[in-house]
Write a structure and sequence with these properties.
heterodimer; A: about 290 residues; alpha/beta; Rossmann fold; 12 helices; 8 strands; about 40% helix; about 15% strand; B: about 375 residues; 2 domains; seven-stranded mixed sheet; six-stranded mixed sheet; globular
């Protein structure tokens, strides 16, 4: 059923968008929107998603969209949802795309405020793990040791745990997803559509340019992120009820790291540290879940 | 109905009477009583609209501009630091041609910390593309908010109604609060473009080229010129409906005056008393109150002040490194007038210090006796206060 849906979707993204070749964000936006459907309003904020959406007079998506400001994805979506309600159109969902910088860093305050009020929108964080739109600069979503233009010797800090932050707000629905698992991703978008209140999707969207990979690699490396437990697929309902959606093969993290030039400088100890952290985080996640894994 | 209320309360009354559909706000002294009053009415089921209690002023303005693009009537209120935090969003709200209305309660900018009246906060937002109206008293505050919605929604530029900390925000005065029926007939239901219609999907606020950006700036400047016409029309119609109108500027006894004082906001009320007494004593002193700051009513001011031999501008604000901001604006506005204006700037009331009648008299005496205009502003303050 789900495979069929994604195989014969209602396409909202038009040909000729402005993404780099092989962009994981563009793939992710396309998947999200065809699961969402045309009856929706979409917000984008400065990030790769805004670039992909096209410079005037081009528009890559056949849906009402608004390019809002960097740090206000959440209140923008909240206010549009409020206005639609006032106008008697509360059956139209509002979805916002923001990058990892716009979510983990500069937009975190306004996202927290909107989530605290349980405003009615779907928030999709297109995480490509650095400021890719401005080049390749470190964000608080960049994993430890990864090269970026502003962490030339490798990022010294670990990736911020955005899902735990969102779960702590006790929002009705939060989930991770990635472009390597399209059915899982589209299931989550459709599920989010049926819920009211603040819904958060953390969507891993590999960036061939910034991760130093060939153009065909984004979906493959996304699969590897899941299969190595670097990026597990799970849902959190009401901030409390965790469900793991896919039991990975628990491959060694090197499978994932070796695909990417941004990790090519790592030594044995650093790879071992990443493995230990992935194992620890996976065990912690399993401990929180309701389902037996 | 006549009510004895504060300026903040008067603003809240206007927001309710205008059937505002979304109020998004964040607390800051001295604006907070507006937010609280609207919350009280919401809790009692008497507001009609929605309230969004955002986590910052920045998000409050983000919410207002987004909802305005969707086509509903929005309002927020702030002061000082909150207004400065909004700065980025103020440019955005005017750049994408929303009809947001905001009340700014003028308050000192930190540092140092203070809570008193000073216009530098709102005047620092001069170049954001907002219409700005400065009010003298509580009645004018209420009336200006009602006018602001009409103007903003017709011109598609956001409008800031400015009142002063304490002197207006917290002082009580008798205010005529119009009936809902009369406000409804003056201010119809909002009818501005709805940017997010499913039937007509478009991409609002995309990236544009250099030439397109320039074109949008020119269109906004033309909208400001149009706003001058609309402000005047709306004010006249307001006068016909409610019996009160204000103009871009108000003149008192300027004809044949040897000196014209130029004031804004509450200093005007004190100056009225001083001018009346001096005129009774035979001094030819006139008064001009500037009410609309953006768009700046240059033609009106040229006509009003062209024949004045001496002009003294009193500013409760300062652009550090230059002078009072109304003074600079006035000088620039008069520079191409047929007569060469002699404009002397005075700084009084900075930081919310008291501008008493005797202090205004000192300004008048200084201006009358001064042979040469100085380019720097002259500080006038009560003894031991500066």
């Amino acid at each position: 059923m789900l495979v069929q849906d994604s195989a014969q979707p209602e396409e909202i993204m038009r040909p000729g968008h402005a993404a780099c070749p092989g962009c994981g964000v563009a793939i992710g936006m396309r998947m999200v929107l065809r699961a969402l459907g045309k009856r929706a309003v979409v917000v984008v904020v400065p990030s790769c998603v805004a670039v992909i959406s096209g410079p005037y007079p081009h528009a890559a998506f056949e849906i009402p969209m608004f390019h809002s400001a960097f740090e206000i994805a959440a209140p923008t979506a909240a206010a549009i949802a409020c206005a639609l309600k006032v106008q008697g159109k509360d059956d139209i969902p509002v979805l916002t795309f923001a990058g990892d910088g716009g979510t983990f860093d500069i937009g975190l305050q306004s996202l927290s405020g909107a989530a605290d009020r349980n405003e009615d929108f779907i928030y999709v964080c297109m995480d490509n793990e650095a400021y890719m739109n401005t080049g390749i600069q470190v964000s608080s979503a960049t994993p430890q040791y990864a090269w970026t233009g502003t962490s030339p010797r490798g990022n010294v800090r670990g990736k911020k745990q955005i899902m735990e932050i969102m779960a702590a707000h006790r929002i009705p629905y939060a989930a991770t997803a990635c472009i390597g698992f399209p059915e899982d991703l589209q299931m989550k978008v459709k599920k989010a559509r049926t819920i009211r209140g603040t819904r958060f999707l953390h969507l891993l969207s590999p960036c061939p340019t910034g991760w130093k990979m060939e153009e065909h690699m984004a979906p493959k490396v996304a699969v590897a992120a899941v299969e190595t437990n670097i990026f597990p697929l799970y849902e959190v309902v009401d901030g409390l009820h965790y469900t793991i959606n896919y039991v990975s093969k628990s491959l060694p993290v090197e499978t994932y790291l070796n695909m990417q030039g941004r990790f090519s400088h790592l030594n044995r100890e650093e790879i071992q540290a990443i493995q230990l952290e992935a194992d620890r985080a996976w065990a912690v996640l399993k401990g929180k879940t309701n389902n037996k894994v | 109905m006549r009510k004895f209320i504060t300026g903040n309360h008067a603003v809240a009354e206007a927001v309710r009477l205008c059937r505002t559909q979304l109020v998004a706000a964040y607390p800051i002294t001295p604006q907070t009583p507006i937010y609280e009053k609207l919350s009280d009415w919401e809790a009692a089921g008497e507001l009609g609209g929605h309230m969004m209690r955002t986590e910052s002023e920045h998000s409050a303005m983000a919410a207002c501009l987004s909802a305005s693009l969707a086509g509903i009537r929005t309002f927020t209120a702030t002061s000082s630091q909150g207004l400065a935090l909004m700065h980025e969003m103020l440019h955005f709200a005017s750049g994408c041609r929303t009809a947001v209305v905001m009340c700014c309660v003028n308050r000192t900018m930190a540092a140092p910390w203070a809570f008193w009246s000073d216009q530098t906060d709102s005047l620092s937002q001069r170049d954001t593309g907002w219409i700005q109206i400065y009010c003298e008293n509580n009645q004018e505050a209420l009336d200006s908010v009602i006018q602001a919605f009409r103007v903003a929604e017709q011109v598609l530029l956001p409008c800031m109604v400015v009142i002063e900390a304490n002197f207006i925000s917290h002082f009580m005065e008798p205010v005529e609060v119009p009936s809902q029926r009369r406000v409804d007939s003056f201010l119809p239901q909002i009818n501005i473009p709805k940017r997010f219609e499913l039937e007509n999907p478009g991409f609002a606020v995309p990236v544009v080229s250099q030439a397109q950006y320039q074109r949008y700036r020119k269109l906004s400047q033309e909208a400001m010129a149009y706003a001058l016409e609309v402000i005047e029309e709306v004010d006249q119609e307001f006068g016909d409906t409610f019996g009160r109108h204000y103009g871009f500027v108000e003149e008192v006894g300027t004809e044949g005056a040897e000196l014209v004082l130029v004031t804004t906001a509450t200093i005007t009320s004190t100056a009225r008393v001083v001018i009346e007494r001096l005129r009774q004593e035979g001094h030819k002193i006139g008064l001009v109150k500037i009410r609309v700051f953006r768009p700046f009513p240059v033609q009106t001011l040229k006509k009003t002040l062209d024949s004045a031999p001496k002009i003294a501008v009193i500013d409760r604000n300062i652009s550090l490194g230059r002078e009072g901001i109304f003074c600079s604006e006035l000088k620039a506005g008069l520079i191409n007038a047929s007569a060469r204006a002699h404009v002397q700037g005075y700084l009084a009331g900075i930081g919310g210090t008291n501008v008493s009648p005797s202090l205004i008299e000192r300004i008048v005496k200084d201006a009358l006796s001064r042979e040469d205009i100085v380019d720097e502003p002259i500080w006038i303050a009560e003894e031991n206060s500066c």
